[in-house]
Amino acid sequence: MITRVLATGLIAGIVAGLFVAALQHVTTTPLILTAEIYEVGGEAARGDASTLSQSALFHRTLNTSLSTIALSMGYALILLAGMLLSEEKIDAYRATIWGACAFAATGLSAGLELAPQLPGAAETALHDRQIWWLANAVLTALGLFLLIKTDAVLLKIFGLALILAPHFFAPIPAVPESHVPAELAARFAAASLSIQALSWLIAGACAGGIYQLLGSHNNEARR
Predict the structure, then answer these.
(1) Of 145, 162, 17, nearest to 87 (Cα)?
(2) pTM summary value
(3) Where do runs of H (alpha helix) occur along the chain?
(4) pLDDT tens-digit map of 112-164
């Protein structure tokens, strides 16, 4: 069982990570490079930033891709662990649904209060954001589980309360002072959330499908 789970997480993470890394290269990475120009001084820094991007873009892309693959492996393993603990049947469809719920807890819900930010943007204290994000993710995930997996009305109401609760004590947004144009920041926030959603969905679909495929292969091998 452990070998099957680890193999599934490894394969699913590589497949999903490579796909998402390719999307990042043409969506969020160009926005980050543009924001860095504004962060270090606008037009006067365009030449230096262009030189830097040409000399270091390969290493940045490689490091980002490896991080994305590792993160996708983590997503796949988290989804598999949650489904196994809840005794959920694991297949591509159900794992994708779990991936959607995971994104709702870790990305969508948090993004309502703390949108992804580009370099040079004003932001609240990192420590406060980290604590709130963790509390929000845990409470939202538990709330979604109660809403979807339980039948008792009181438990469903309690689940809804858990989902709403973190938004009453979210960190106060920072004063909107930024060198980055608002349009660029909005595009980055939308692209980042979209990429995160795809990361969870693809990791879930791959993990569920591969886990089921490995199970069928093992059953055939025993015959």
Answers:
(1) 145
(2) 0.84
(3) 2-26, 28-39, 46-85, 92-103, 109-111, 126-149, 153-164, 182-222
(4) 888 888 766 666 677 888 899 999 999 999 999 999 999 999 999 999 999 99
b/e per residue, 118-133, with b = 16+ CB within 10 A?
bbbbeebeeeebeebb
Contact 103, 47 (CB under 8 A): no
Residue 180: name the closest of 81, 22, 35 by CA: 35
From CA 81, how far away is CA 71, in angstroms rounded? 15
Helix (H, G, I), strand (E, B) or coil at 88: coil
Long-range pairs for 110-115 at CB < 8 Å and ≥24 separation? 110/136, 110/137, 111/189, 111/193, 112/167, 113/166, 113/167, 113/170, 113/171, 113/173, 114/170, 114/171, 115/189, 115/193
- Residue keyed to tokens 């030189």: 51
Radius of gyration of the chain (CA): 20
Separation of alpha carbons 205 and 76, rounded Å: 9
Q: Crossing angle, helix 92-103 and helix 46-85, to 10 degrees?
A: 120
- At 133, which amino acid appears? W
Q: Which of 218, 221, 115 is nearest to 176 (CA)?
A: 115
